[in-house]
Write a structure and sequence with these properties.
The complex is a heterotrimer of chains A (197), B (808) and C (311).
Chain A (H helix, E strand, L loop, with lengths): L6 H9 L4 H6 L20 E6 L8 E7 L9 E7 L12 H4 L1 H5 L9 E3 L7 E2 L2 H19 E4 L5 E5 L2 E4 L6 H14 L4 E2 L5
Parallel strand pairs in A: 8-9
Antiparallel strand pairs in A: 1-2, 2-3, 4-5, 6-7
Chain B lengths: L12 E5 L3 H4 L1 H14 L2 E6 L4 H4 L3 E4 L5 H14 L5 H7 L12 E2 L2 E2 L2 E2 L4 E2 L26 H9 L4 H8 L3 H12 L8 E5 L1 H4 L4 H15 L9 E3 L6 H6 L6 E2 L3 E2 L8 H8 L15 H13 L24 H9 L5 E5 L3 H4 L3 H9 L3 E6 L26 E6 L8 E4 L4 E5 L12 H19 L5 H4 L13 H9 L1 E2 L3 E2 L5 E3 L17 E2 L9 E2 L2 E2 L20 E2 L27 E3 L4 E3 L86 E6 L13 H6 L4 E5 H7 L6 E6 L2 E10 L5 E3 L2 E3 L1 E5 L34 E7 L1
Parallel strand pairs in B: 1-2, 1-8, 2-3, 8-9, 12-13, 13-14, 26-32, 27-29
Antiparallel strand pairs in B: 4-5, 6-7, 10-11, 15-16, 16-23, 17-20, 18-19, 21-22, 24-25, 26-33, 28-29, 28-33, 30-31
Helix pairs in contact in B: 4-7, 4-10, 14-16
Chain C lengths: L10 E4 L17 E6 L8 H9 L26 E8 L5 E8 L8 H5 L6 E4 L4 E3 L9 H5 L6 E3 L4 E3 L5 H5 L5 H5 L5 E5 H17 L6 E3 L9 E5 L19 H14 L5 H11 L13 H16 L2
Parallel strand pairs in C: 2-11
Antiparallel strand pairs in C: 1-5, 2-9, 3-4, 5-6, 7-8, 10-11
Classes of the chains: A alpha+beta (197), B alpha/beta (808), C alpha+beta (311).
Chain lengths: 197, 808, 311
């Protein structure tokens, strides 16, 4: 037994004072009263294996992206969960890892190179070329001005002590290696990382 | 970690101290729970707070922050005096029988050689007595009054259980209950693992706390054993890797040291770095230092590095101080001695102590470059953020560049976890906007600097112009190219002693045993050699099988060194090569070679009869209870009070003011007046992180902001009662350096402690939340913390300082 | 998309629907259960975050209330919360009892029995009790009918929500998001039988460690549940942030459902029915107090909202 009633009319009936709940109880339900589970949101996603960026447990992560890598799509990660094959994490993630999607898509992500000029109160968008050129110029100028070939005791030291570098704690080993190679070639000694803070 | 995450499951006792692994490393902590289920392991939680680890522990005790050495020193004495240590292990595998030279002394809280004027030690007496062949003298009976064992015993005899109770605030009954459980792991079939983190590191005596833990493990015979070890739970996803690659002021890749200025020649440098054995027949692996160093220089400078020019040794910058660490950098900025700074994914305004000082330092820079995926506080140090960061931009002349970088999901490469596993990851999507990888940014800057030197000349351009740059796309070295570079390759056909070619010129090396000191191999980071071989990218392997069922997955990713998962694993067998116990069988001698569940940390064909010690990296081949000159405060850990202490003396050396605080803690003149006294700031504070957050990143992630939205502090019901503070009320915490506001969490999990005749209240302060992001805005916690460094690493003392508290 | 595009044909109970759904295909479907072992829970909230992430929920960024609990309570956008309580046991030792609070998926669900909207609440053959929100009229009776006070009403769309036990994941052969994330295996998932067996082992282990009163919480008053707890102190469930000792469906709902509803509702005055519900619904109500009819209340609210949207 089924009476075809649209949802809107169904509510109107109720509003009109007819005991709608009683109607429903008697089987006069709207036709979409079938129930079902939510659509499974990973169908068709591209899955990529990765390692969590937060702590040093190094949990395996599965990143699910919309888009299949085709030329006409910009892939977008929309779900992250643990990698069950990973020997340490076995599919688990902690609350930080479980929420990493909101880090990837944080409204705080920097999107363009910017500069804050001295004594101003704003960010100004610049091109990468301008950023690289200005930074390289600053570095060379300072290095040329302050490079020490010898210390005050006359010993050969070949170092540049007036520019410092702190290195990232979540970058790759490959980036870290390049950082090491570059900083030492420049003569930088004031170099530290986030190992202890 | 000497061991690894999954190996925790093999432990019988787990000591969580100086860390809160459930909170900071929940997924690693799963193996603690596994151990409890699997072998009925006992979890001990010792901490200033009853924390998330404590919630599932079997035994728990509060102790006062900064007093761990007292507790561990008392434990050492307890083990020795009650003969509860593993005597066979101690005799065979530690330096206990070695004799220390005459002149070594300890008196009234100080070791021999202290100079109060420059606050340093002359460490020359902290060494072994050598025979005519240059080998250390020993006394296998352990009776010689100057053998390490007797000196150790004497040193810690002062650490009585009464003194432990008096200084740490832990009731002696509880102390003895825990020590008794720990002592049971001296049995050959029982092991204890120690899980620690920054709760040990971030003190003025942090390095010595860790050493004290290692000494306990040596006495119990738990080093090199499955379910044993001293396990540093590193904080960040790749801070192990950055340390391995040597991104510290004084290091080169693979724990090689940059030379100091007094090593003017290559020969001087090699003489100090090549470590010869101190006992006959031992390996002392650092004797191969030259192979590692020359191969690195060949990778960096290619054909320009030759034997004739000492492999360009003169080009390396030389140090005039032990370290130029973060505290030094900020202090130099404040002094006006710094022009520029690069912050590569490191939010230093939030992460360094004494935020006011950091702000001042950054304000004096000419330029600052911030590379980060997020708009972090450091990039906006010049901007006024109201009460949370009240600065005047018009007064700050620093030029600031903010460069958008990719995050992990948007690049390829490897990161090294706390277990020393290099795990490769793959890019899943493009980054937002114009973000670029860190590698590309660095390469672009370097190429432009190089071009400027080519065009204009300038100061000492040789290392810049000659830096090897053999990348297919010079502006964007790929991760694979860089990984191959740190793995290393043969520059000529390499042959073995019989003349057989083991590697053709240009081929990737199999591991660091193929390195040469004659310039015929190139290798950027010797301990990473083996990561990317002719077989391919070993870091990307995904075989998770565990054939021996001991939690060893040798086919998953790649671990340094040599894909070895458990360091010093030769010590898991008795001197005769049989396992200490069948339950703990791990590596053993099968009659012709060492075999077992792991890659042996030993020459695989060196028979037990040769008696070579298991600790092949040390000069004695043995675990070192006596640190010789390796640490700056002394060869045995000694308790000193935090720089800001809630009591007025060091109860262990009550009459010597020089021994109140760490006598060599690094304090800059500029900061001498920035320490508070317990009269003005009566409460002992400690900072830490929470499981819902990761430093200052996740306050930018909505899901985490929801889970823990707002800054709070934790205080006991007793202190709350005294100050009239109710649950959820707002309070202000003040230190000598500033104040911050927070919500009060009043909890039974914090308790007042009775210390040296007075009641000490402790206050817990999570470090998260700042003035950026999607969580509730707050003052940065490091507004409060003191600018003082550990005596060895210069790590700031974030874990013990003084504050006052008021209700708002 | 609408929620009715897959007809599972294994719905064993529907709210306010005397006509059964087709469910002959439930023959081989095993009952599932989630086990929450409070004794190894570290309260990390991974489950809470994973739940929100999977279900595309982003609740408000709240405040610290002087406790670790956050969000402070369940909401339409927080299907589960961790509840922390500091309990001093008989020996004087402190225990930090941390309980994950979410829908218990009762075998005899009070929400479903109380719900007057046809098909808004269903029970699958595998034991999951799911809200089919498309049909929810937002009356709030489900919350009143729930002995665990779980469902929450959304101001955004006038509908009630709760944990689905990730019915979407389970239907597609996966475990719920919370279960997968749990770092310490405090949350487990499997057939109900497997979970009870596993729970029995955990209880034995706890008893061996000195928790004499350890036990499984699978309350009979609601016919058992598809979310069961392992408790160190099963004799005192109320110390776990008020877990009810002997939860029962309110007799009012039982009466309404069991006798009155199918036969008598057409003839019984609505005011009488409403009187029953007023008797049992406590706390702030979303619908006006003087409104006797749940659908009318919901419809009026909907109309008001749309009026408000007009320029």
């Amino acid at each position: 037994m089924s009476v075809r009633v649209s949802r809107r009319n169904f509510l109107k009936l109720g509003a009109a004072g007819l005991g709608a709940s009683s109607m429903a109880m008697m089987g006069f339900a709207p036709d979409q009263a079938l129930a079902s589970v939510r659509h499974f949101k990973l169908s068709g996603a591209t899955m990529t294996r990765n390692v969590c960026t937060y702590c040093s447990v190094g949990c395996g992560m599965l990143l699910y992206a919309r888009g299949d890598g085709g030329a006409n799509v910009i892939d977008n990660i929309y779900h992250v969960e643990g990698d069950p094959d990973h020997p340490v994490s076995r599919g688990s993630l902690c609350p930080r890892g479980a929420g990493v999607l909101d880090f990837i898509h944080s409204p705080s992500r920097v999107k363009y190179p910017e500069v804050r000029e001295p004594n101003t109160n704003e960010w100004k968008r610049i091109s990468w070329d301008e950023a690289f050129d200005r930074i390289a110029r600053h570095m060379k100028d300072d290095r040329d001005r302050n490079f020490q070939t010898h210390d005050d005791q006359g010993r050969l030291v070949n170092r540049w002590m007036t520019t410092s570098m702190v290195a990232a704690s979540a970058c790759t080993n490959e980036t870290a290696y390049l950082t090491q190679k570059i900083t030492r070639a420049l003569g930088i000694l004031t170099l530290d990382n986030q190992a202890r803070v | 970690m000497t061991n690894h995450w999954v190996d925790i499951r093999n432990a019988n006792v787990i000591l969580s101290m100086g860390g809160n692994s459930a909170e900071a490393h929940p997924v690693g902590f799963r193996w603690v729970i596994h151990a409890k289920e699997r072998s009925k392991a006992i979890l001990i939680s010792v901490d200033p707070r009853y924390n998330r680890t404590t919630a599932v522990s079997d035994i728990h005790a509060w102790l006062r922050t900064g007093t761990d050495i007292v507790w561990l020193g008392g434990l050492i004495s307890y083990l020795i005096e009650n003969e509860l240590y593993n005597r066979d292990y101690v005799l065979a595998y530690t330096d206990a029988p070695l004799i220390v030279r005459e002149g070594f002394d300890f008196e009234d809280g100080l070791f021999s050689g202290y100079n109060p004027d420059n606050r340093t030690y002359d460490r020359s007496t902290w060494n072994f007595e050598l025979d005519e062949n240059g080998f250390a003298r020993t006394d296998p009976t352990l009776q010689h009054p100057r053998c390490v064992f007797q000196l150790l015993r004497q040193h810690y005899s002062r650490y009585t259980v009464e003194q432990v109770e008096n200084i740490t605030g832990m009731p002696r009954k509880k102390v003895l209950q825990i020590w008794d459980v720990i002592a049971q792991t001296a049995a050959p079939d029982k092991t204890m693992t120690i899980l620690y983190a920054l709760g040990w590191t971030q003190h003025t005596v942090g390095s010595q706390m860790i050493r004290a833990g290692a000494m306990v493990q040596l006495l119990l015979g738990n080093m090199g054993m499955p379910g044993g070890g001293v396990n540093a739970l590193r904080g960040h996803s790749n801070i192990q890797g950055l340390t391995d690659i040597g991104l510290l002021s004084n290091l080169l890749p693979g724990y090689m040291n940059l030379p100091s200025a007094n090593l003017q020649t290559y020969q001087d440098y090699m003489r100090t770095r090549i470590k010869q054995p101190l006992l006959e027949g031992e390996v002392s692996y650092w004797k191969f230092y030259e192979r590692f160093f020359v191969s690195m220089m060949k990778e960096w400078y290619g054909d320009v590095a030759t034997a004739e020019n000492d492999w360009c040794y003169d080009w390396l910058p030389k140090l005039s101080a032990p370290l130029y660490d973060i505290l030094y950098a900020i202090n130099q900025m404040v002094r006006g001695e710094m022009t520029g700074a690069f912050c590569q994914g490191f939010n230093i305004l939030a992460a360094f102590p004494n935020k006011a000082k950091v702000t001042e330092g950054l304000s004096k820079l000419k330029w600052l470059v911030v590379m980060d995926p997020l708009k972090v506080e450091t990039g906006e140090f010049w901007q006024n953020h109201g009460e949370f960061h009240p600065v005047d931009p018009s007064q700050i002349a620093t030029e600031v560049f903010r460069l958008p970088t990719t995050c992990f999901a948007e690049d390829d490469g490897s990161i090294t976890n706390s277990s020393r596993w290099l795990q490769w990851h793959h890019k899943a999507a493009p980054p937002p906007g114009e973000s670029r990888t860190d590698t590309e940014i660095l390469a672009q800057v370097m190429l432009r600097i190089k071009r400027l030197y080519e065009e204009e000349g300038g100061a000492f351009p040789e290392p810049i112009l000659n830096l090897a740059w053999n990348y297919t796309n010079p502006a964007y070295p790929s991760s694979e190219e860089l990984a191959k570079e740190y793995n290393g390759r043969a520059l000529v056909d390499l042959t073995d002693p019989q003349g057989n070619v083991i590697r053709r010129a240009g081929e990737q090396l199999d591991d660091f045993s193929q390195l040469r000191e004659d310039g015929t191999t190139a290798c950027g980071c010797w301990i990473y050699s083996g990561a990317f071989t002719e077989k391919g990218n070993m870091m990307d392997r995904r075989d998770n099988s565990d054939p021996y069922d001991v939690g060893m997955t040798l086919g998953w990713a790649w671990a340094w060194p040599m894909n070895r998962r458990l360091l010093y694993n030769r010590a898991s067998a008795r001197p005769d090569g049989t396992p200490w116990s069948q339950d703990k069988a791990f590596i053993w001698w099968n009659g012709s070679r060492w075999v077992g569940a792991d890659v042996p940390d030993f020459a695989v064909t060196s028979p037990p009869s040769e008696g070579v010690g298991p600790f092949i990296l040390t000069q004695t081949g043995r675990g070192q209870l006596f640190a010789s000159e390796w640490l700056n405060e002394g060869p045995f850990p000694e308790h000193y009070e935090p720089m800001e202490s809630p009591i007025d003396r060091n109860p262990l050396s009550p009459d010597n003011p020089l021994a109140f605080h760490n006598p060599i803690a690094r304090v800059f003149d500029e900061d001498k007046d920035d320490f508070g006294s317990n009269k003005e700031f009566p409460y002992a504070a400690t900072t830490y992180r929470l499981t819902e957050h990761f430093h200052f990143w996740t306050t930018h992630a909505r899901l985490n902001a929801i889970a823990q939205p707002e800054k709070f502090i934790e205080i006991s019901e007793q202190l709350a009662g005294e100050l009239g503070i109710a649950v959820g009320e707002r309070v202000r915490v003040r230190s000598k350096r500033g104040y911050m506001d927070a919500v009060a969490v009043v909890t039974k999990r914090m308790v007042p402690l009775e210390i040296d005749g007075r009641t000490v209240h402790q206050i817990g302060i999570p470090l998260h939340w700042g003035f950026k992001g999607v969580a509730r805005k707050a003052h940065l916690t490091n507004t409060l913390t003191p600018f003082v460094g550990d005596g060895n690493t210069q790590t700031p003392e974030f874990k013990s300082f003084l504050v006052n508290l008021e209700k708002l | 998309m609408r929620g009715d595009q897959i007809n599972l044909q294994d719905i064993v109970a529907r709210s306010a629907s005397p006509t059964p759904s087709p469910h002959v295909r439930s023959g081989n479907i095993q009952q599932v259960a989630k086990l929450i072992d409070v004794s190894v829970c570290i309260g990390c909230k991974a489950c809470q975050v994973a739940c929100s992430e999977w279900n595309d929920l982003r609740d408000e960024v709240g405040h610290c209330h002087g406790v670790y609990d956050n969000p402070i309570d369940l909401s339409a956008e927080s299907f589960e919360v961790m509840r922390f309580s500091e309990y001093v046991n008989e020996e004087g030792d402190l225990e930090w009892l941390i309980r994950k609070d979410n829908c218990m998926h009762c075998a005899e669900p009070g929400c479903l029995k109380a719900c007057p909207a046809p098909g808004a609440i269903v029970q699958y053959a595998n034991g999951i009790v799911d809200f089919n929100s498309e049909h929810c009229i937002g009356c709030g009776y489900c919350r009143a009918g729930c002995p665990f006070d779980i469902p929450r009403y959304s101001e955004k769309d006038n509908k009630a929500y709760k944990c689905t036990l990730c019915s979407d994941r389970v239907y597609h052969g996966l475990e719920p998001a919370c279960v997968k994330s749990c770092p310490t295996s405090a949350i487990m998932f499997g057939t109900k039988e497997a979970m009870l067996d596993y729970g029995a082992k955990r209880v034995a282990s706890l008893q061996e460690r000195g928790y004499e009163n350890a036990g499984i919480y699978d309350p009979a008053g609601v016919g058992g549940t598809h979310v069961v707890y392992v408790l160190q102190h099963a004799d005192k469930p109320e110390i776990y942030s008020g877990l009810p000792k002997d939860p029962q469906i309110s007799p009012v709902v039982e009466a309404w459902k069991g006798i009155t509803k199918p036969l008598m509702s057409a003839v019984l005055g609505l005011s009488v029915l409403t009187g029953f519900f007023h008797y049992m619904i406590k706390g702030p109500k979303e619908e006006p107090e003087d409104d006797p009819d749940p659908e009318k209340a919901a419809a009026d609210r909907e109309l008001d909202r749309r009026e408000g949207d007009r320029p």
